[in-house]
Each structure stands twice: as C-alpha cells, then as structure tokens.
C-alpha cells in the first residue's frame, strides 16, 4: 500500500544492528560478557541484524509490489454479481 | 534492575519506528476499506507474518515459556496439534469463502450465510472478547514491567503500573488511529522479526550453557523431553490428558474454533491482495508457527535446566519482588499454567532459575497444599533474559518482549474497531451514513476500544481470578463456534434458525459441562463443579478439552436437527458461501510450486517430521 514494508523493516534493523555493533565493538573484552559465556553477543548478533536490515532495505528499494494480473480481486471479476 | 542508556536507546528506536509507521501511512487512509481492511492490497508474505504475530501476544511468549518450564516439551502440542492442522484447513478450504464472499468481517460472513441474529451473537460476543483480551495484555505487560523493575529509579514505585498501562495504550492508540489495519500489520511484521531477533540468541546461548538438547534430556525427567510419551493415559504425562482428549479437544475443536473463526487472525488474511494470496496466508504463517516452540518453549526448558548456583543481583530483585504473577491467557488453546495447583510430577523435576512465588504482603514463599513452595513459572523467560544477556542486547530482548505484548493489543483493537463499525454500528445503529462517516467511526471506535481495554486492565487488578475466569469464558464461546462454520460452509441445508440455536445451545452445554465436572484436587467454584459434581478429570486441561468436545458436539447435533425442520435458503443465494455451490478456486494457471495445496503438503510433512523427532 504505497509504502513497501521492507523499507521500515530494513531501516529499523540497520539502526538497531548498528547501535549494537558499535557498542559491542567498544565494549569488547569487557567484563559484561561474563554472563553470556564470554561471547560478545552485541558485536556478533548486532552485525547479523545489520546485514539483515541492509538486505531488506535494498530489496525494498529495488522491488515494487506487482499487481497479480492473473487473479483479479473478486469484486473486479465482471461476472460476479454484487453482494447485497 | 537498572538498564543502561544503550538499552533505553534501543527501546526508544523501536517506539519511534512504531509511531513513525503510523504517521507514514496516514495519507493512504482514504476510505473505510483502507482503514479496516488495508485496501485489500497486502502481499501474502506480509499478511502471513502479521497473521502469526497478531496471534503471538503476551500469552504465547510468557505463557508458553511458563508451560515449557512446568510441563516440558509436550507444550509443543499447542503448536503442532493445536494450531498447524487448523491453519492448513482454514487456508485451503475456508479462505475462498471468507475472501470471495467479500465479507468485511467474520460476523458479516455469518449474516450473508445465515441471518442477522446469528451475526449479532457472534459480533457482540467477539467485540467483548477482544476488548477483554486487549485489557489483559495491557495488564500483563504493566505487571511484568513492575515485577522486573524496569522503571525503578526513574518513576516512583506506585506509579509504575499506571504509567505502563497508559503509555502502552497511547502508543497503540496512536499508530492504529493514524494508519488503521495497515499500520497494525506493518508493525506486526516488525514485531515478528524483533521477537525472533530477541529470542534466537537467548536460545542459542542457553543451549550452549546447558549442553544442547542432549544436555536438557540428561537433566530433566524423560516425561518432560518427549512430547508423545505417556499420552495413552492421563496420569502418565504432565499435561494430565490422554491423546484422545488432546487431539479432539485441542487439536480439533479448540484449535479449529480459534484459527478458523477468530476475526483477529482472519482479518489479516482478508487484507491480502488476491484470493490465491489469501489462501496462502495461513499456510505461510504456519511455517514460523511450527518453529516457534524452539523460540518460546525451549527457553522454559532451559530455565529449569540451569544448575548453576550463582545468583545474579537481578535475580535477587526478582526473588524478593512483589510477584502477583504474570498470568497467561490464550483465547484459543488454553495454556493453563495455573501456578496454584501442582501435579505430582511438579516436585520431581529441577527448577533451575525459576523463582518461587512470594506472598506480596509478608514476603514469605507461597506454599501449596502439600507445604511445598510454589514456583512462579511465568517469570521463566524474563529471568532467563536477565541471566544471560549483557547490556545492549538486553535492551533488544526486553523490546522483543514488549513488542509481543503490543502486537497482541493492537490486533485486538483493530478487530474490535472493524466489528464495531461494520457489524454493530452500521448494522444496527446507523445504516445509511457515508463512507467517510464510517471511517470517522472507526477512529472513534479505536479510542473507545482502548479506553475499554484500560478499564478491563484495571478490573484485572481487583479480581484475583479474572484471568482464569476470562479464559473460561473464551473457551465457552469459542468451542461451539467451529461447528456452526463447518456446517455453514459445507452443508447448504443449514439454516439461520439452526445456526442461532446451535450456537446458543453449544455455549450452554459448555457451561453445563463445566458446572458438573471438576479437575482433581480442586474446590468447586472457578474450576467447575458449581452445580454438582458428576465427574472428576485428572487436570484442568483435560476438563477444558472435554468441555470443548462436548460443546462442539451439542452444537453440531442441534444445528443439524433444527436445520432439518426449518426452511433453507434458495441455492442461488448461497453461491460463493457454501462449498458445493461455489466454483473451485482457479489455480491451474499457476505452476505446481505456486499452488496453495503444494504449500499445505509441505507444511504437513514438516509437522510430521517434527512430531517424530520430539516424540
């Protein structure tokens, strides 16, 4: 409907992934990762989310939703009678 | 618990996007069709994700985690038996009628197929249920925020609950008021991905910590890690129900009753851009639904498998916190994790990091009838989040949790405003107004719906058992519903009088069954047996499932009987509304992989594989 959902979807993950990646980068080797078994979740998962956001956003920019020319909506079919 | 600036920033970003989408879509809301049905222009995959996200409210995330922690992997039955078959059925067989009839809502379909009084029964009961559901979501979210201490230090303690309720209400009101169903759908897709983003790393790190699925099987009793073991008899499995009650009660009546008739989810399929799309929507939704047990049930199992004795400062907060308990309700498959009855199996499994329930008045642990402490399983997932997530990703996890609550609320509000405007206001109050007037009415109904939800949320604070009571009411109303739709869509002889009497007698039968039976170890009252006790069930769940079976059967019999003695409508009036009188959907122009039936078979195959792996 005018706005392709992949645009805001991509954008939010670009932003969130970006925030997490940057934060994860600045806090690497910090004690806060003791509880997550010394895995830098912010950096790792942040990067993955950022990439997901990027893919979504780019796909959203390139593609447009096509109307399905073969299956007209029910009320567009000439032979169906209008409903009461 | 104190959150850092990063966590708050992440939450803020989410709320900015949620409102931003509403503002961005405002200009496309030109007609009531745009507002209530998204102009019927949304692609199938978007509708599919919204379909599943609208259903995934607080009840799923918190409740399934709690059930997983308490009962084990057989909670997956709520997904694999209790949802997927129904979703396949509604997509393949029922969507052509919902979409093709051009009905703008499920009650409107009933009016087209039967008559006004049947529509009225469905419209009024549904409108009330959505408002109550939304209120419960609001209440549960505010309670969780209060228990977790999210705003501690920022807002005085006794205001936290109220601020949470009003803040969530205003945000949901804003984005639906502006962008209608489209806004709700877009936000639901966002929320879906956020929930995956928030919970997938949690499951990953949790599994690493407890030694994977093998480690869990090693730590927990076998009854908790095998979904079909012990299902021959009610007393050999943790759910307390045998496989017949499970498959007929949950798998058939309750699940079909919800997925095939509840306008909350059907509305998202009706927004699709073509009939083929609409048929695909529930099937597309079935795929993530099948894998959701790994995101919501597994954390519950992980939480009880953790055997480390280290208690983090946050957990100390929760152990001592006022926890009246975040109750889970599902309007559909009841996740009855009532934490004040413990089964015999409850004591013999580890409790991991799940905190005990404490009496808010004296801070002492709540004890059950055997003197054992009762565990607050509803906190399983929040506690797990706090246990593993460092700041940064913690903000994401909490945002995912909040997102799930809000998608539940928004879904209910959009369903309410549509049913109110078309099936109550336009049908009975003001039949001849302009479309612009109905669009205005839809916006007012959104405001009204939110206000009523707030009232319901506050009512829940005063009445201890309101969640249980509402769960009951939902099952009484939902259980017989499917029989009416089944007969209406597949038997042209069904008449309006029959549908009406069938619906009412089905609900009455459910009430009667509940009044005459009681689960083991409970007192008469909210659990049943308030007329007299004729039969004992091994558990709440068993009683629930058999109530559903009973209600469905009574509705079926009564509807058939009354149909045979009343006059049906002419065949030509029912074209497009009944299976035998509607041309089969046109899909021979599609390649084999594009046909909805191919998708359905693929989903079924995956379902069987999953059941076999975790049997």
List the total number of helices of chain A.
2
* Average pLDDT for all residues of chain A: 79
Query: Strand portion of chain B, in percent?
Result: under 5%
Low-confidence stretches of chain B: 309-313, 319-347
Features:
heterodimer; A: 84 residues; mainly alpha; 2 helices; 0% strand; B: 615 residues; Sodium/glucose cotransporter; two-stranded parallel sheet; 1% strand; globular
Structure, described:
Chain A has about 80 residues and is an all-alpha fold. Chain A has a domain at about 5-60. Chain A contains two helices and no strands. Chain A has helices at about 5-25, 40-60. In chain A, helix 1 runs antiparallel to helix 2 (about 40-60). The two termini of chain A are about 25 Å apart. Chain B is mainly alpha-helical. Chain B has 22 helices and two strands. A two-stranded parallel sheet of chain B has the order 1-2. In chain B, helix 8 (about 115-150) packs across helix 9.
Summarize the structure.
Chain A is built from two helices and no strands.
Write the layout of secondary structure elements.
The complex is a heterodimer of chains A (84) and B (615).
Chain A: H1 6-26, H2 41-62
Chain B: H1 5-25, H2 32-37, H3 44-55, H4 58-71, H5 77-80, H6 84-100, H7 106-113, H8 116-148, H9 160-210, H10 212-219, H11 222-225, H12 243-259, H13 263-270, H14 275-305, H15 313-320, H16 380-388, H17 393-429, H18 435-462, H19 466-490, H20 496-516, E1 517-519, E2 535-537, H21 540-565, H22 596-613
Parallel strand pairs in B: 1-2
Helix pairs in contact in B: 1-9, 1-17, 3-9, 3-13, 3-14, 4-14, 6-12, 6-14, 6-22, 7-8, 8-9, 8-17, 8-18, 8-19, 8-20, 9-10, 9-14, 9-17, 9-18, 12-19, 12-21, 13-17, 14-16, 14-22, 17-18, 19-20, 19-21, 20-21
């Amino acid at each position: 409907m005018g706005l392709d959902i992949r645009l805001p979807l991509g954008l939010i993950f670009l932003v969130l992934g970006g925030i997490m990646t940057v934060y994860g980068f600045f806090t690497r080797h910090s004690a806060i990762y003791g509880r997550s078994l010394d895995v830098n979740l912010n950096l790792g998962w942040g990067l993955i989310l950022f990439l997901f956001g990027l893919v979504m956003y780019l796909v959203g920019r390139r593609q447009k939703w096509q109307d399905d020319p073969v299956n007209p909506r029910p009320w567009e079919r000439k032979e169906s009678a209008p409903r009461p | 618990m104190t959150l850092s600036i990063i966590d708050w920033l992440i939450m803020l970003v989410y709320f900015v996007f949620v409102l931003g989408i509403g503002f961005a879509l405002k200009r496309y809301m030109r007609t009531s069709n745009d507002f209530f049905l998204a102009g019927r222009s949304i692609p199938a995959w978007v509708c599919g994700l919204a379909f599943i996200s609208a259903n995934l409210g607080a009840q799923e995330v918190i409740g399934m985690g709690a059930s997983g922690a308490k009962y084990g992997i057989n909670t997956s039955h709520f997904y694999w038996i209790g949802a997927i078959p129904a979703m396949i059925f509604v997509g393949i067989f029922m969507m052509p009628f919902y979409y093709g009839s051009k009905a703008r809502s499920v009650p409107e379909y009933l009016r087209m197929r039967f008559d006004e009084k049947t529509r009225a029964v469905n419209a009024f009961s549904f409108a009330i249920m959505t408002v109550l559901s939304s209120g419960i979501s609001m209440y549960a979210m505010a309670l969780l925020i209060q228990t977790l201490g999210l705003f501690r230090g920022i807002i005085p303690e006794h205001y936290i609950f109220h601020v949470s309720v009003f803040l969530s209400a205003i945000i949901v009101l804003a984005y639906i008021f502006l962008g209608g169903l489209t806004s709700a759908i877009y936000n639901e897709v966002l929320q879906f991905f956020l929930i995956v983003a928030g919970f997938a790393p949690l499951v990953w790190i949790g599994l690493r910590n407890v030694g994977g699925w093998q480690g869990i099987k090693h730590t927990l009793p076998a009854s908790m890690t095998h979904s079909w073991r012990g299902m021959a008899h009610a007393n050999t499995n943790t759910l307390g129900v045998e496989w017949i009650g499970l498959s007929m009660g949950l798998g058939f009546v309750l699940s079909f009753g919800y997925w095939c008739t509840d306008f909350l989810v059907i509305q998202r399929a009706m927004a699709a851009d073509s009939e083929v799309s609409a048929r695909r929507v529930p099937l597309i939704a079935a795929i993530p639904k099948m894998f959701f047990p790994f995101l919501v049930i597994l954390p519950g199992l992980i939480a009880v498998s953790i055997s480390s004795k280290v208690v983090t400062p946050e957990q100390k907060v929760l152990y001592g916190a006022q926890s009246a308990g975040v109750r889970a309700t599902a309007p559909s498959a009841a996740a009855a994790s009532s934490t004040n009855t413990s089964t015999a199996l409850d004591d013999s499994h580890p409790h991991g990091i799940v905190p005990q329930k404490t009496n808010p008045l004296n801070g002492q642990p709540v004890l059950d009838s055997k003197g054992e402490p009762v565990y607050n399983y509803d906190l399983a997932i929040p506690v797990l989040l706090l246990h593993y997530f460092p700041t940064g990703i913690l903000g994401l996890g909490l945002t995912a949790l909040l997102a799930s609550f809000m998608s539940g609320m928004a879904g209910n509000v959009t369903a309410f405003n549509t049913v109110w405007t078309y099936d109550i206001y336009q049908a009975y109050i003001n039949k001849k107004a302009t479309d612009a007037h109905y669009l205005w009415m839809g916006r007012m109904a959104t405001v009204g719906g939110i206000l009523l939800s707030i009232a319901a949320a506050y009512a829940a604070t005063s009445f201890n058992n309101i969640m249980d009571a509402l769960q009951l009411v939902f099952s009484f109303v939902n259980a017989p519903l499917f029989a009416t739709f089944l007969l209406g869509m597949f038997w042209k002889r069904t008449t309006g009088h029959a549908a009406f009497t069938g619906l009412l007698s089905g609900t009455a039968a459910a009430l009667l069954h509940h009044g005459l039976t009681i689960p083991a170890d409970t007192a008469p009252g909210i659990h049943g047996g308030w007329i007299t006790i004729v039969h004992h069930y091994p558990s709440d769940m068993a009683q629930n499932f058999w109530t559903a079976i009973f209600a469905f059967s009574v509705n079926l019999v009564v509807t058939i009987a009354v149909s045979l003695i009343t006059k049906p409508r002419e065949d030509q009036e029912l074209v497009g509304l009944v299976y035998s009188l509607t041309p089969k959907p046109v899909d021979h122009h599609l390649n084999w992989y594009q046909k909805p039936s191919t998708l359905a078979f693929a989903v079924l195959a995956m379902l069987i594989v999953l059941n076999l792996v975790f049997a």
